[in-house]
Amino acid sequence: MELLWRSSHIAGGNATYVEDLYESYLKDPNGVPEQWREYFDKLPRVETDSAHIEDIPHSVVRDRFAQISKMRVRTEATVQHDSQATEYERKQVRVVQLISAYRQRGHQKAELDPLGIAEREHVRDLELSFHELSQADYDTVFQTGSLHIGKADATLGEIHDALERTYCKSIGAEFMHIVNTDERHWIMTRMESVRSAPDFSKDIQLTLLRRLIKAEGLEKSLGSKYPGTKRFGLEGGESLIPMLAEMVQRSGSYGVKEIVIGMAHRGRLNVLVNTFGKNPADLFDEFEGKVEYDSSGDVKYHQGFSSNVMTPGGEIHLALAFNPSHLEIVSPVVEGSVRARQERRQDTDGDKVVPIVIHGDAAFAGQGVVMETFQMSQTRAYKTGGTIHIVLNNQVGFTTNKREDARSTEYCTDVAKMVQAPIFHVNADDPEAVLFVTQLAVDYRTEFQKDVVIDLICYRRRGHNEADEPSVTQPLMYQTIRKHKTTRDLYAAKLIGQGVLTKDQDDYLVNGFRDSIDRGEPLVSSLVSEPNKTLFVDWSPYIGHNWTDEADTTVDIQKLRTLGNDLNMAPDNFPIQRTVNKIIEDRRKMAAGATPINWGFAETMAYATLLEEGYPVRLTGQDVGRGTFSHRHAVLHNQKDESCHVPLQHISEEQAPFVIYDSLLSEEAVLAFEYGYSTTMPKGLVVWEAQFGDFANGAQVVIDQFITSGEHKWQRLCGLTMLLPHGYEGQGPEHSSARLERFLQLCAEHNIQVCVPTTPAQVFHMLRRQAIRPLRKPLIVMSPKSLLRHKEAISTVEELAEGKFFNVLDETDELDKSKVERVIMCSGKVYYDLRAARRERDIDNIAILRIEQLYPFPEDDLVEILAQYPNISDAVWCQEEPMNQGAWYSSQHHMRRALFKHKQGVYLHYVGRDSSASPAAGYMALHLEQLEAFINKALAPETPWEN
Question: Where are the alpha helices (DSSP H) in 154-237?
Fold first, then answer.
């Protein structure tokens, strides 16, 4: 028995059992029997840099014990060889550890910096001596285990050379943080099998050179024609152009039909010309001001573009997203546009539409929206089947040094590890390495539908822009750059040295490019001259409409009642929470006309009728399923198994799609995503709801630079609806205000709509109008909070069926309009406070008008209503918000003009809270005191103000 223990316990049929025991031992030594623990304790322990022992491939354990078993069998006959066998076993394990070290940390030794000036920390783990190996072992044959070098056994010299070439040359790969074993092994196989340097054919090498010639040649041409003019050139990063060309062509070979690209300034003009096929002559005209202006426009390096190119898999549509100077904010916009295109194609896996986002290194590390976008990447509401990220890494952020101040992490790409994205760092001066990682990235995204990052480490030959002098802040770097040959020149010299082409042939290619650009010819040979129009959205039905165009938002009353009843029936054997059950029971009564209609019912019926009429609806935001204030309940939750039922998805088989998702806790990225979605999906209703109105503060850049200005900068139509809960309920400053004043300040040229509905019927027709009317303008809604359940904020089924959205609502109480001496104009919840106080005081000479649409201001509608009050002598604008906030400063001139048209000499007075640095009072007592004061002032029989 003892002999069996010593000789055969790790061989034959016992091998699998022993391997499993050893893996258990590595995780927890106390988890195996004592006899085995003592045995394993005497073996050299498998070391790993990973925090997870499960990251040790099982093949390492299996191969190790197979080798141990073989050595036992070979040496058991002679006791004197036991010590040699033990030494060999130890070294075999050390070889496995060496392989693991290169996979995990080889990138830290890789030759990534084209300039050769980046300081890298010494990595002891990659030394042979660290693993108790030496060059004296170079000729010893070891098992290669999971190392993919084409044979099961190799000398240590062969193994070491393969690891150096694979992980420490022009490519540094970070992938061992990925939990999924299949993904890790896929990357290992692809890289190790060709040592990260496949042999490319002469034709491919010449194609690479031609693309570099185009990239460098365009920059030189622009530099000579327009010296000192800002263009944010690509000099130093020219490898981006062959990278994008390969991405497009390889994606097309997989059957991709659309690619949406987002990028900031650096290299944008080069991408427009050399990737999208923009005619250089058109670009030159823009530099020279020879363009017609249809709107305010934007600078050249913010402009978008689209074109169609031919690939091995057929025609593919390329779209370059418009982008402001806020750099990374374009990332979620691209994701939203891609998601809309995928849904249009019923592309649930992301096989047909691919997002590519090009980042700057400093922005990628520094801007939080990058993290938010990564966090969205695998969620139900926002996933797009994986994004290919390219970091155009200049190694300097404007003038900020790379490591000391620009970030706290080793690489600018470290944020991508949060979603376990593989990261391929590559030296941009090695075009063939760039080509290889490009193919790797496209294939990974195709295989696993997940994000992948390429860190294209290059440099900036000029300053942040062409007017900068970079040596002021980075003198040593730019001393090196001035002496450094361009990527094109380096690669041409390499090919000449390999005999791929001659110096004369190289000169011929360069001169040929110069002739092409001088003739103003498009530089993309695969450009399709007559694009397939089915590859992109037709916006023509939505162009040229006016905001005053009417829309028929009426609904057959019987259809409305039937929908209202059917939607509010839970499925059989689907127990729902008691309060929710009461809500849907009440809604059935509302549908029947037995009780007045509240806000939640009216909103739900707006969606239901649109869906039934063929208009798709997408609703996202925090808590939208239930509604932050528990008014919506569009998603019913089974109380036994937590399954969900969405009634609006079960209206009929012919209905349009209804999508509703509770979003991650993000405003900036989520709102940008919905903007991108709505600029690509013109039909239907796209709604983003803030949990509280002030949450939109976190997305202000999206509001400023896209939603309110995108049409006039870039001619991009957008029908996005924003629901922003707004209302002064005495709950403090943070969640009272959606900052109405900010939106009104941004209003001009009929760019957006700002509405403050006060009845369920108003919200019903407002939402239907937004979808049915072909006008595509963003709709900003100051949504109520207390009005959701206010006993007087009600409507009838008839008002939903037969009405419309009224921009101005007239007085609803029965007043003798000829006796009215004062009109109070207001918006929102304050109307109900004013009306309640007026009724209590039996005032009959003051009328209250509600302006439900503050922009575009309905001046004609207001004049028409004012005409019914011939004897008014004064007018009041009353608001809850402080004087420096709300609608007063932005809208008073509109109201004064309407009053002047009606009757000269009627002065408009402000009534409301005094100006304040804070949106609202923090104490309930103070809130009520302020409310009582301005209500009293608005209704005072004697005018308490001086003209």
Answer: 156-167, 181-192, 202-225
Domain tally for the chain? 4
Which tokens go with 47? Answer: 């070391």
Q: In angstroms, rounded to a whole number, what is the distance separating the alpha carbons of residues 450 and 384?
A: 9
What does each C-alpha distance from 541 to 574, 706, 820 come to in angstroms?
A: 43, 22, 46
Q: Residue 809, CB half-sphere, CA atoms under 13 Å: how many?
A: 20
Maximum alpha-carbon separation in the chain: 121
- CA–CA distances in Å: residue 750 to residues 230, 240, 702, 775: 32, 40, 18, 11
Give the count of beta carbons closer than 10 Å to the beta carbon of residue 36: 16
Domain that holds residue 722: 557-727+735-802
427 forms bridges with which residues in the sheet?
Answer: 457
Contacts of 920 (CB under 8 A, 6+ apart): 728, 732, 733, 736, 737, 927
Q: Which CATH number do you get for residue 934?
A: 3.40.50.11610
Long-range contacts, 464-467 (Cβ 8 Å, 24+): 464/232, 464/398, 464/399, 465/230, 465/231, 465/232, 466/223, 466/227, 466/228, 466/229, 466/230, 466/231, 466/232, 466/233, 467/228, 467/230
* Cβ contact 241:211 at 8 Å: yes
Q: Does residue 71 sit within a domain?
A: yes
In the structure encoding, which two tokens stand for residue 85, read together? 């066998």
Give domain status of residue 538, yes or no.
no
Contact assessment for residue 881 and residue 839, using Cβ atoms and an 8 Å cutoff = no
| DSSP 8-state class, residue 706 | I
- 640-649 burial code (b ≥16 CB/10 A, e <16): eeeeeeebbe
Angle of CA points 145, 146, 149, to nearest 5°: 90
Q: Are residues 350 and 477 in the same domain?
A: yes
Place of tokens 């009072």: 921
Q: Give domain status of residue 842, yes or no.
A: yes
Residues 821 and 779 in one domain: no
Going 548 to 552 to 557 to 562, the CA torsion angle's sign is negative
HEC states along 299-326?
CHHHCCEEEEEEECCEEEEEEECCCCCC
Give the mean pLDDT per block of 10 residues along the chain (947 residues): 41 60 72 72 56 57 60 50 76 93 96 90 93 94 91 94 97 96 95 94 96 92 80 89 96 96 88 89 75 59 79 94 83 95 94 95 89 94 96 84 78 95 97 97 97 95 76 83 93 96 94 85 82 81 87 95 92 90 92 93 96 97 89 91 93 95 93 95 95 88 92 90 92 89 95 96 97 96 91 94 95 92 96 96 96 96 96 95 95 95 90 93 89 93 67
Q: Last residue of a domain, which of 174, 192, 210?
A: 192
Do 461 and 604 have their domain in common?
no
Answer with the one of 751, 783, 802 that is the final residue of a domain.
Answer: 802
